[in-house]
Amino acid sequence: MHRISTALELTATQVEQVIGLAGLAPSLHNTQPWQFRILPHLIELHYDPARRLPAADPDGRELRLACGAALFNLRVALEGAGVRPVVTLLPHLAHATTLAEVRGGGRPEPRPVAVKLHAAIPQRHSHRAPFRDVPVQPADRHELLLAAQSEQCWPHVVTSGELGALEGLVHRAHQVQQADSRFRAELAAWTGQSTSAVDGVPTDAAGPRPEPQDEWVHRDFSGGLAERPDGVAHESGPLLVVLCTQHESPADELRAGQALENVWLTATSRSLSASMISEVVEVREIRDELRQLLGGTLHPQAMLRIGHGRPTVPAPRRAVGDLLLNGSTPT
Ligand SMILES: Cc1cc2nc3c(=O)[nH]c(=O)nc-3n(C[C@H](O)[C@H](O)[C@H](O)COP(=O)(O)O)c2cc1C
């Protein structure tokens, strides 16, 4: 069991709160593949090699997206605690699990946008159930796109002309994954968790079991259990945003993860809900086809479905002490 250290002129209690908020980030199958080393003058973000998903994510691309999302939460949480975060991305260090380090850059008042995002961190959840059939307003859409761009990410809003082809790609990707016994075993190991589990997706947070006629949500986190009430159909026109990067490096993936979380928290702060549709970017050949569909220049990293959702159940998280790497200096 770790004792929490002080860092960046924050008290141990503040450090615990900041790391707790970082750990509320989204991650594939709720693996929470991040670790933190707390030092007096910096906080290091590491990935946890034991929490990789070799079948769904053989290259660790989505692991870095998740860690990028945790890094974004860490930045917002630090700003909320009065520390301006200065981030260095370090995903290329050979033989190391380090992804980034964050130092203090002064103690200005938090910006109003950071205050809003900070409040949204505990409210953000995956909403896999059908949304209400109400379109996302242009002003909301504008803010969501700005949130992605501010993290050096290009958000592609799927047009009505692209919808049919995209739906076909999502279906095919889903079929490729379902035909892979390793993928199915991995998904089964991380879903249908008991209520006492601290990771994975428990049945009550899974959303309803997808139905054959569903256009977008195909991945079943419910363990086949949670049927949805008769007559509740998926929204007819979700806002689908594909987050793209200019290149395809690990640093781009960390940027995409930060953009993902900025967009998702911005949506949450505006009372919008979101879920991810990842099969289309997980299957390499289909990701290439998606790239061509979107113009062939940028690299698609993640797809979000955004709309007006109904309340959902939060997925669990590990305790802060379990996220700390040995070497975090005790107070
Ligand atoms: C890279 C990445 C890919 C994800 N892909 C999917 C997906 O395809 N379908 C889905 O429903 N959720 C997906 N999620 C969401 C996770 O399942 C979710 O974040 C996790 O279960 C924790 O739940 P929460 O988002 O409610 O906190 C993904 C998350 C990340 C970061």
From TrEMBL:
Residues 194-214 are annotated as: Disordered. One of its GO terms (molecular function) is oxidoreductase activity. Residues 123-308 form the Nitroreductase domain. It comes from the Bacteria. Signal peptide: none annotated. InterPro entries: Nitroreductase, Nitroreductase-like, Nitroreductase/BluB. This is Nitroreductase family protein. It comes from Saccharopolyspora dendranthemae.
